[in-house]
Amino acid sequence: MSIDHDRDLVVPLYRAAHARTGDKGDRANISLIAWHPQLWALLVEQIDEDAVRGQFAHRRPGRIVRHLLPKLHAMNFVLDEVLDGGVNGALNLDGHGKALSFLLLELPLRVPRDLVPLLAGPPLDPDESNL
Predict the structure, then answer these.
(1) Residue 3 domain-assigned (yes or no)
(2) Cα-atom radius of gyration of the chain, to the nearest Å?
């Protein structure tokens, strides 16, 4: 699927997918699931390890690995060294990293106009990006 910068809308990722975070020690995994199967290709194309590393740069993650689950229209990101030591070693308020899925869902996503009706949430004005 190609990106047409003149015709595509830019929306927050949460309009195209939902997410859930889990943790084990200083490792978080974030599952990202497309709201609609036709949105899956956009996620694969645009939401990769580099995009996630940029979004989480302030957390200084170590290794980031993306696992694709195409039959589920989902992917799972494993982020090492992102929880400040994990629930037993961190002094922050979110030692389990549960809020990390919300941070991921703020990533911008370019969506072709013909796929806009598949997005979750209120209807979008097709003449403007809604970021």
Answers:
(1) no
(2) 15
